[in-house]
Specification:
184 residues, 2 helices, 13 strands, six-stranded antiparallel beta sheet
């Protein structure tokens, strides 16, 4: 499995619409950086957030998720309460090629502040907005800045196309738009 370069990412983004909208060079003028990097793509977080709240004493159950566990906010700056988390989504819409697996890592700017970004791998054939989970591990409120860098995606090419892709098996998160809650 090889990690794919900026040249490959650019070519796929422009010819195959793998990333839309696509920023061809890293931007960092007064913001948390985003755009194409040497061996990855730094995606932006959109201005739609679901902030965890326990006002109704809900139990977190991945098989029966209570939508009232979150409050929705559309904002340029999201404040995550201490020791809590928020869901968001990427600005970019991804279309993953059949012979590629995409792994996401958090940005060091957030990690150095105790803010962890978690995303499961983007499987071959998957497409959609990526739902991001921001965990505030600190005892203080934490800020997330919309339309700025949130995480970096690394593209790994398999030795051959997979037999069954995410699209082939009609995965439950296929084509998701917006912030998507857990599905069974």
């Amino acid at each position: 499995m090889a990690i794919l370069s900026d040249r490959w990412i650019r070519e796929q983004a422009l010819s195959q619409r793998m990333i839309e909208p696509f920023v061809e060079a890293q931007r960092r003028d007064g913001c948390i950086s985003y755009g194409l990097s040497s061996y990855g793509y730094d995606a932006r977080v959109a201005d739609e957030f679901k902030i965890f709240t326990n006002v109704d004493n809900a139990v977190v159950d991945p098989k029966d998720f209570a939508a009232n566990s979150f409050v929705d906010r559309k904002t340029d700056v999201c404040i995550i309460p201490p020791n809590s988390f928020a869901l968001a989504r990427t600005v970019e819409y991804f279309r993953v090629p059949r012979d590629v697996l995409v792994i996401c890592l958090g940005k060091s700017t957030y990690a150095r502040c105790g803010i962890i970004v978690n995303v499961t791998p983007l499987e071959p054939g998957w497409e959609g907005h990526v739902t991001l989970e921001f965990s505030n591990t600190t005892p203080l409120p934490a800020k997330i800045y919309a339309n700025e860098g949130a995480c970096q995606f690394l593209f790994l090419k398999g030795n051959e196309p997979c037999e069954v892709s995410y699209a082939d098996r009609a995965g439950k998160y296929m084509g998701q738009r917006g912030v998507t809650l857990p599905r069974l």
